[in-house]
Amino acid sequence: MMMSETITIPVTQNPNTNYQNIDIYNCPFGKIHTDHMLICDYKDGAWQMPKIVPFKNFEMSPFSRVFHYGQAIFEGMKAYKDEQDAVWLFRPHDNFTRFNSSAKRMAIPELPEEYFMEGVRKLVATEKNWIPKGFGNSLYIRPFIIATEQGILAAPSSDYRFAVIVAPANAYYYNDVNVVVAERYSRAANGGVGAAKVAGNYGAQFYPTQLAIKEGYQQIIWTDDIEHKYLEESGTMNVFFRINDTLITAPTSDRILDGVTRKSVLKIAENLERMNVEVRPITIDELKAAHEDGSLKEIFGTGTAAVITPIASFSHENKAYKLNKQADSFAVKLKQDLLNIQYNITKDTFGWRKKVL
Ligand SMILES: Cc1ncc(COP(=O)(O)O)c(C=O)c1O
């Protein structure tokens, strides 16, 4: 489906475009900015008209509330270019609704729908030359809001900036990912902000993840904060377990992000005859028992950045449990089906693809 222009967002062209000088097929993730960005400020109790302007640094007071209280939210999305050079977004409205629920949780004023949807669409259209083609290549889209009011008082800001920046992203392939199941640290707690894309959620993961990396793991499987028993997310991804032919993932909650990839994988799997799907809590004890009796076939993470990341082993209470490679891997099949929809290779029976231009 073609996305329509709902409001007219003005574009100030960058006279010094840089895309001719950049090899968009060889970009370190999130390091190369494009020529333009979208900005939209909240002041005097209202979101002002968004505009697309040449990319440049923000000028902010060191008193800005975001620096002191972390009142900041973000989203992560991608634009895909197909073989005919058409450009597509994948379920962008889901990112918009999640963005506003993150805003609400952080006492940030919610954004009008067309500012987000048309803002993202028009910025992607403006930067179409920056989108690398081919499976796994994309334009990564980062919408975010920061609290800009000057003031050291611990209270919600009265001023904000909504911005969207984009960056060419290339396919990246992981070696096998080995994970450790969290026994001490937690990503989220009931009543907290785990279900929102709040900047501080991610900063708080860095230290436990550093410890895990030092011990030779690439990621942590996060568990519930009370008993460290329920398996909830993997790094910054939702997590799926395949026991025999059943895919199991935890229900969303205060502690689990409602991932767009997660719900897409669930939908695709439900429609495939060979896969059963169960959305229910799953414990480390059940996982270890399934490993022991041979019914645990696969574990994988899902998220916009890496789509589906297979997990080769998990470790708990200092014991490693290795998984054998499956000839009929669900992770491989689901990834292929999802990419085929995202890159306009197969029919989009779910109505997820939105055409930018
Ligand atoms: C904590 C967390 N879980 C899951 C996901 C996956 O969400 P999505 O599939 O919408 O990218 C992300 C990434 O955004 C995340 O940060």
How would you sum up this structure, described in words?
This protein has 357 residues and is an alpha+beta fold. Helix content is 23%, strand content 28%. The strands form two sheets. Strands 1, 2, 3, 4, 5, 6, 7, 8 and 18 form a nine-stranded antiparallel sheet that branches. The chain has a six-stranded mixed β-barrel with strand order 9-10-11-12-15-16, surrounded by four helices. α4 (199-214) links the parallel β9 and β10 (219-223). α5 crosses α7 (330-342). It starts with 35 loop residues before the first strand and ends with a strand. It binds pyridoxal-5'-phosphate. The site of pyridoxal-5'-phosphate has 13 residues, from β12, α5 and β15. Pyridoxal-5'-phosphate (PLP) binds at residues 76, 233, 236-238, 257, 259-262, 302-304.
- So what's the overall shape? globular
Q: Class of the largest domain, according to the CATH hierarchy?
A: Alpha Beta
CATH architecture annotation of the largest domain: Alpha-Beta Barrel
H/E element order: EEEHEEEHHEEEHEEEEHEHEEEHE
**Number of strand segments:** 18
**Tally the helices: what do you get?**
7
- Stretches where pLDDT is under 50 for at least 5 consecutive residues are none
In round numbers, the mean pLDDT is 96
Biggest β-sheet, characterized? 9 strands, antiparallel
Report the radius of gyration as a whole number of Å.
Answer: 21 Å
CATH superfamily of the largest domain: D-amino Acid Aminotransferase, subunit A, domain 2
